[in-house]
Specification:
Blueprint: E1 7-9, E2 23-27, E3 31-35, E4 41-45, E5 53-54, H1 62-68, H2 83-92, E6 96-101, H3 106-112, H4 114-123, H5 125-149, E7 154-158, E8 162-163, E9 166-167, H6 171-190, E10 196-201, H7 209-214, E11 219-222, H8 231-238, E12 243-248, H9 257-274, E13 277-281, H10 291-308
Parallel strand pairs: 1-6, 6-7, 7-10, 10-11, 11-12, 12-13
Antiparallel strand pairs: 2-3, 3-4, 4-5, 8-9
Amino acid sequence: RFRCEARGAIPVNTGRDGGYPEETLSDTAEHRIWRDGLGRTMKLAKGMATLGLPQDYPVRTMDDWLRIKPWYQFSEARLAGPWREAARKIRERNAVSYVSIPGGFDEPRQLMGEEAICVAYYEQPELVHDILDTISDTAFRVLERVSAEVTVDLLSVHEDMAGKSGPLAGPAQIREFIAPYYRRIWDLLVDRGTRLFDQDSDGDMNGVIEPFLEAGVNCMHPLEPAANMDIVKVRERYGARLAFYGGIDKHVLRRSLDEIDRELEYKIPPMVRSGGCELALDHRIPNGTPLEHYRHYVRRVWEILERERGGG
């Protein structure tokens, strides 16, 4: 998740440990339908998508949650793998070591669905708190053991909690529900040498950057320009408080060469001057991108970087 030439995950489990066996329900030329580990009915439109969409969710009430809560509680099995040896090999390669924790928004969303979790903040707060308290306790106990023996360079969390119109949880919900979870884990790790807390979320996160900074996050990606995430303006507003990677508009590759040049000239020079940014496209290369445009993009990136660094 942290794009670096040398990186390595410390193989411990802070998330779900258990579930149902996956089962294919239907497989046609148009769709694949299956039951996943959470018991959700999933549907994938072939040739149009790469991710299946849930058709239902396992948690609607506290009783539903209590039935599957053991999947998220701590057990020694979470530390049963060869994580010490893996950590040693990561260090021998001089690689960035990282651990991941479940998303404070994303994991309840996987259990309940987007609409239901947003309503639950108001109508079932005790349910949301119990889910996040359980996840927090498990992640803390696992990472307390790991970080006592090896230094973790980066803490990673996947949220994907925003679209073009903004985030699905606001500052008040983040401060009440998500921040205590984040803060507990981050305070543990930062005291033991961890330097980066990286959050992955697409969409327009401008309205919630501040509460996430308060919660310990200091790195974000992918910063999608199509969702109003302008890395130049983000850097002007937050300075060295926030590192990031991504930020180059993937859609510009399908436009003219002049538009590619304008995008790169606008973003690369201020990022080189300020640092704390790994420049990259904000997601996958879009279908229909001409090869000539991609080659031009790569060539111009290096030309501008060399110029800004004083190499020509």
